[in-house]
Amino acid sequence: MRILIAAAGSRGDVAPYTGLGAALRHAGHHVAVATTEPFAPLVRDAGLDFRGLPADPRGHGGATDRRELMRTAAAFITELGQGFADAAADAPDLLLLSTTTAPLGWHVAEATGTPSIGVYLQPTAPTGDFPPVVTGSRSLGRPANRLAGRFALRMTDRVYEQAVAKLRRRLQLPPESAAATRRQRERANWPVLHGFSTALVPRPADWRPGLEVVGNWWPHHDPSGRLPAGLEDFLTAGPRPVLIGFGSMAAGDGERLSEIAVRALRRAGLRGILQSGSAGLAADGDDVLTVGDVPHALLFPRLAAVVHHAGAGTSAAALRAGVPAVPVPVGADQPFWAGRLAALGAATDPVPFRSLTAERLADALDRVVRRQGHTLAAARAAQHMATEDGAARTLETVAGG
Asked: Where is the Erythromycin biosynthesis protein CIII-like C-terminal domain (predicted)?
């Protein structure tokens, strides 16, 4: 079967699909991933075909207030929609659509008659169990959570409206709003597989049929890969260090964050690894090392704790390794995942990014490393996650579809 996976956003919004794609390829399918140009190496390194989408999320950063975030998101989505039809031009047999690409992919599927399945990294369907992931982690009560969830979907429809109108014209489809298409898919119980662990988000009982939580899809990495020699030397030279990194977040804030990180580590008496990321974290010293991109699966089991932005992928990777965390959410769905980690006991209470100081970080590190409760909770979650196989569940769905 010829399968096209479509995903867009930050690295964390794309990397999990390289592992899923590799599993599908191993099962005998021909797999291509449609995403933006910066992630072409990730796709090709996994042995998958790359299809370019003509937008770059890095060009839409810097928004601070909600209205500006809506405008920049709409601009990114509109760029994305311009090339979506081209990515599917080679007539795949199945479209696998991420949270970001589904509201565009539905129209391509309609125009071409191609079956499609959602492969989401975030829970977007309204539920009484929790509020929308974009509003944080604090429950509003079951009725209000559901109401807020429906409102969040309407706001998402607005972001996609212009892109959908342009895409439908290009595909020679009659006009239809983004909201109408979404409601049609919901009524048809369009299948969505959610690639996160039930340790973090059990399937809500009030979800409609067709929505399933299958377990994580892990980014592809070479099973024979090794950590860089300098990092390996640092790991073996003393007690387990703490990793501090913010992934694709906090661009341009590296100098301030690096200073906070080093001061906090030394105040807590811990060795540390700074992962440069988009922020450009950097520091030198006998007790601190700076690294670039390193597979989480190889590094995280060797750590005492992880300080991270609480992106879905990093949150899951730390849990999988049984390593406790200090979550410092920056925005988007990160406060939601940070709250989930803390509720499990596998992390300290979140430290909001704008409130981060060396003193607050040192105190959180002291708690998470020197008290066993967080480590034990992370280990229990790791045992639960080891029983899940998101790729295998997805293969079953694809084979049965």
From this structure: 285-388
